């Protein structure tokens, strides 16, 4: 794994979009009109090989297809591929014959192969390699047969499931990737026609679109989709109330206002897991499992969950985003329980004794924790930091809070390593995508930013990774539990966001628009 993946994980974790969508509201109108959706930030470079941010993935989902899709309940459905054959180390797809690119060229197996192999090419330095596409995947096309085969060096659990995350570039974009920085070259229902970075992105429907997931149609979708960049969430909510925008994802305190506003359709949907990691470098106090477990016992995680999620979160049951390929609860009963007295006794036993000022000391070193968190996720994350600091100070630790913007957090994880505990929500949909970050070479040489070394986790994921997804699920879940039992990371809350709309309905799954689901209501 390359170290760039640590930054990629951070971007996904901090900006992962929600699963779900909005329904109800005004009756849908037939095709025509403009649907306007608010983006919290600019999507940046639009080449799918560089699209690691949640906001970029959302933007690209209007213009690009994937080989397969996924429903809200986790079922894999056809996309550009109409059928497939899965083997332990490869999957062969038969493509639809009628799919065309936005420039009119047919979509070929060679296009699919070029998309996959471009991401896997070391020269590309794609940040999605190893995150949205597994390391080692290669593609081989047979244009005459209409098939493309994706293979791995060894059996891989989620070889089919990973294809729902890989956007296929076609047409002129295959040979001229430079055109994709501010343009699109895909087979999706919409084509980008105007890009004004920092302000808006305009897409026009392709009425010839007649492929994609079963039952989809562009007959009644809007003629135009505008993605408007609105960095301030209060402004975003105001635009929704006024009807200036038709849809948005809301994280913060404006949720309550929108839920009580007539004409707004609002639905809370899972977004990510709020959790924190302990740094296990040799020179850190949290390298000792006894210290990690004691610090965890010193925190009322139920109360922390309410604070971190501003009262809108749920109880975490696993590490990855919904819809999860492995159903079950890997959390309950596996996290050290709240017990301040036991925490104090454990720290004493580990050699950390209270000094004159109340801060614990061992071998002349103070028990100091540098707590790192992002400042871009609202008041709940800040309040959670302050709550944790208070709990750990009461247990005898000196706590230094360090709130930073996303790019600085990525730098701290990947390069400077100037932290002891970090709040880092997880934002990936497959457990296999986390292995390189939770094991293997430590940062800055590898992607294992917390320097984790959990032999039981490593053994279980190695075994699970060689089995088909369903057959390995018990081991994937047990592997997550092994991390929690060792206090390598501590799950706190399953956070939610509000998918809100006015004058329209739409569906997103894993932050990706189901573009054929967009409908305008009266006045939209």
Automatic annotation (TrEMBL):
InterPro entries attached to this UniProt entry: Peptide/Ni-bd (IPR030678), SBP_5 (IPR039424), SBP_5_dom (IPR000914)
Membrane-spanning parts: none
Entry keyword Signal: yes
Domain of life (superkingdom): Bacteria
Alphabetically ordered keywords of this record: Signal, Transport
SUPFAM superfamilies from the UniProt entry: Periplasmic binding protein-like II (SSF53850)
Signal sequence annotation: 1-28
Annotated PROSITE patterns: PROKAR_LIPOPROTEIN
Protein name (record): ABC transporter substrate-binding protein
Organism this protein belongs to: Nonomuraea monospora
């Amino acid at each position: 794994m390359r170290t760039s993946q640590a930054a990629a994980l951070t971007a996904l974790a901090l900006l992962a979009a929600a699963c779900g969508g909005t329904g109800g509201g005004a009756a849908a109108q037939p095709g025509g009109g403009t649907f306007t959706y608010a983006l919290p930030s600019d999507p940046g470079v639009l080449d799918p090989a560089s699209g690691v941010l949640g906001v970029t993935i959302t933007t690209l989902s209007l213009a690009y297809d994937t080989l397969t899709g996924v429903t809200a309940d986790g079922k894999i459905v056809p996309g550009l591929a109409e059928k497939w054959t899965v083997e332990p180390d490869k999957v062969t797809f038969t493509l639809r014959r009628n799919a065309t690119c936005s420039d009119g060229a047919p979509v070929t197996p060679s296009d699919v192969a070029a998309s996959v192999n471009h991401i896997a090419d070391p020269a590309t330095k794609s940040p999605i390699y190893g995150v949205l596409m597994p390391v080692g995947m290669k593609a081989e096309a047979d244009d005459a047969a209409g098939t493309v085969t994706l293979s791995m060096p060894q059996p891989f659990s989620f070889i089919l499931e990973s294809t729902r995350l890989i956007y296929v570039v076609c047409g002129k974009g295959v040979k001229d990737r430079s055109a994709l920085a501010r343009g699109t070259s895909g087979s999706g229902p919409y084509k980008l026609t105007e890009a004004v970075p920092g302000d808006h992105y305009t897409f026009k429907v392709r009425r010839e679109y007649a492929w994609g997931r079963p039952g989809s149609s562009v007959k009644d979708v809007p003629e135009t989709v505008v993605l408007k960049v609105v960095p301030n969430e209060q402004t975003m909510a105001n635009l929704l109330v006024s009807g200036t925008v038709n849809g948005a994802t809301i994280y913060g305190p404006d949720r309550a206002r929108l839920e009580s506003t007539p004409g707004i359709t609002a639905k809370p949907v899972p977004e990510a897991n709020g959790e924190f990691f302990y740094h296990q470098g040799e020179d850190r106090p949290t390298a000792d499992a006894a210290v990690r477990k004691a610090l965890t016992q010193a925190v009322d995680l139920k109360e922390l969950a309410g604070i971190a999620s501003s009262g809108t979160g749920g109880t975490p049951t696993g590490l990855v985003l919904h819809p999860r390929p492995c159903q079950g609860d890997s959390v309950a009963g596996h996290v050290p329980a709240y017990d301040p007295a036991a925490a104090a006794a454990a720290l004493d036993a580990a050699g950390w004794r209270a000094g004159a000022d109340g801060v614990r000391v061992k071998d002349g070193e103070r028990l100091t924790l540098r707590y790192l968190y992002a400042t871009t996720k609202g008041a709940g994350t800040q309040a959670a930091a302050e709550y944790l600091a208070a709990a750990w100070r009461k247990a005898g630790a000196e706590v230094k809070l360090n709130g930073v913007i996303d790019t600085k957090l990525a730098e701290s994880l990947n390069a400077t390593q100037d932290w002891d505990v970090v709040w880092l929500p997880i934002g990936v949909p497959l457990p296999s995508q986390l292995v390189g970050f939770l094991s293997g070479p430590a940062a800055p040489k590898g992607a294992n930013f917390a320097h984790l070394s959990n032999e039981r986790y490593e053994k279980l994921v190695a075994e699970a990774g060689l089995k088909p997804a369903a057959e390995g699920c018990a081991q994937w879940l047990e592997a997550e539990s092994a991390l929690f039992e060792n206090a390598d990371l501590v799950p706190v809350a399953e956070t939610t966001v509000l998918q809100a709309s006015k004058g329209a309905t739409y569906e997103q799954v894993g932050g990706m628009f189901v573009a054929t689901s967009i409908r305008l209501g009266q006045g939209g």
